[in-house]
Design a protein that fits this description.
The complex is a heterodimer.
Chain A (H helix, E strand, L loop, with lengths): L7 H8 L7 H14 L1 H9 L2 H4 L7 H7 L1
Chain B lengths: L2 H24 L5 H15 L4 H9 L4 H12 L10 H18 L6 H5 L1 H20 L5 H27 L5 H11 L1 H14 L4 H6 L4 H18 L13 H7 L4 H9 L5 H10 L2 H21 L7 H20 L4 H8 L1 H9 L1
The chains are: A mainly alpha, B mainly alpha.
């Protein structure tokens, strides 16, 4: 589990695989690979996963409206 | 300053004034009934009689703020007690959202339907209605004063944070989180405090819960930014330095490329969104979400609550959703579970 908020630069290093961040580094590697696939990235954007899964929103009415 | 920005600024100033009024009345050295009467009179003087505004407030679904009020009430033994403050939270959100939409020049909002000035009037109506609802809140005197002060503080500080966001020219990692911590937690603090008070917590114990507001505010704002960057009708491309995902990429090696895409306007949105994903902006948002969840859990462990189960449930749910999101974006089940601490969260809940 990751415990501390990294700043952007620290995170970029972790994302690029240049810094060791334990199991999180492995998650980043797998996600980076996934998004290299153009079709997979587009599918995630278009199937609504990113709206429905995991994000609370400030204004529920707006979220309902958007869907 | 554009007409919309000027109108939004006027709206935030009105919100600050109404919030300050509630706080001042809560502290008036007069009997509680008199203080309530002053608040009612102020509400009617400002004007809270607009039926359409009341209808919109009544039609609002229970919000994430209502959920946290319910959790706080449940932590003190009676989750249903929080229902007494749902209308107040709904009226606060209605007023704030109208002004925020004016500030952001949203294409689908009340101001777009009826015009900026009438919408601003509705926002002020909604916030005045907050005062009327507060005056009627069925709480003992000391709890009522704490509630009125909390409502006033939540409104005033939210409006000041929103104004800061609109006016600041500072950009970057530190400026971003400073603005988030100013604009989002105050209303969550109010929701937590109100929920606890309705369930019979002392003002002292209710106020202690507000320590959860900063990490919970971050959790909320990160989710909001993800929606505003990645949804089909994403709108934050107009103020990209105020969106976590866009700021992350703008401040990195492909920042100028994203700037060029943003300059093309909404037509470039699909390419903008793919760039955000490939550059790790969503990964950063998930990381920030997990860090905020950890901070919230640590803060929770320092609070002496009759039960912290409702908050642990919320945190566990958020971790499970983050895990689901990681799995949906190519991370295998075992790694996603370990990153998100889902097993650990389940153990905490089971204790």
């Amino acid at each position: 589990m990751f415990r501390r908020l990294m700043n952007f630069e620290e995170f970029r290093s972790a994302h690029a695989g240049e810094a060791h961040a334990g199991v999180f580094a492995e998650a980043l590697r797998q996600q980076r690979e996934f998004f290299r696939d153009h079709e997979a990235a587009e599918a995630v954007l278009h199937d609504g996963s990113l709206q429905r899964d995991g994000w609370g929103v400030w204004d529920d009415q707006a979220a309902v409206h958007a869907q | 300053m554009t007409p919309s920005e000027a109108a939004a600024r006027a709206g935030w100033r009105a919100a600050v004034a109404i919030g300050s009024l509630a706080g001042d009345v809560a502290n008036l050295p007069v009997p509680g009934e008199q203080a309530r009467a002053v608040l009612r009179a102020a509400a009617h003087a400002i004007g809270c009689g607009d039926e359409s505004t009341r209808a919109r407030i009544a039609a609002r679904r229970p919000s994430i703020f209502g959920d946290r009020a319910r959790d706080a009430a449940e932590a003190f033994g009676d989750g249903t007690a929080a229902q007494a403050v749902y209308p107040i939270l709904a009226a606060l959100i209605e007023g704030i959202k109208i002004i925020d939409d004016i500030q952001d020049d949203e294409s689908r909002c009340l101001a777009a339907e009826i015009g900026v000035e009438p919408a601003l009037r509705c926002a002020v109506d909604a916030l005045a209605f907050v005062l009327e609802l507060t005056a009627a809140l069925p709480l003992p005197d000391d709890a009522w004063r704490a509630a009125a002060a909390s409502i006033g503080r939540g409104l005033r500080e939210t409006a000041i944070g929103q104004e800061l966001e609109a006016s600041t020219t500072a950009v970057g990692f530190h400026a971003f989180w400073e603005i988030v911590d100013r604009k989002t937690p105050p209303l969550l603090a109010t929701a937590l405090e109100l929920g606890a008070l309705t369930a019979g917590a002392t003002p002292f114990h209710a106020a202690a819960l507000t320590r959860l507001a900063i990490p919970m505010g971050r959790i909320l704002q990160i989710g909001d930014d993800c929606n505003d960057a990645l949804a089909p009708d994403a709108s934050d491309w107009r103020a990209p330095h105020r969106n976590l995902l866009m700021l992350y990429v703008l401040s990195g090696p492909r920042g100028s490329e994203l700037s060029s895409l943003l300059a093309e306007g909404p037509g470039a949105l699909p390419e903008i969104q793919l760039t955000l994903l490939r550059e790790g902006a969503l990964a950063y948002a998930i990381h920030a979400q997990l860090a905020a969840l950890t901070t919230a859990a640590e803060t929770l462990s320092t609070l002496s609550l009759p039960t912290s189960t409702p908050f642990h449930r919320y945190l566990a749910h958020s971790r499970a959703e983050a895990e689901h999101l990681l799995r949906r974006t190519g991370v295998d089940e075992e790694v996603a579970g370990r990153v998100c601490g889902v097993g650990e969260a389940a153990l905490t809940l089971a204790r």
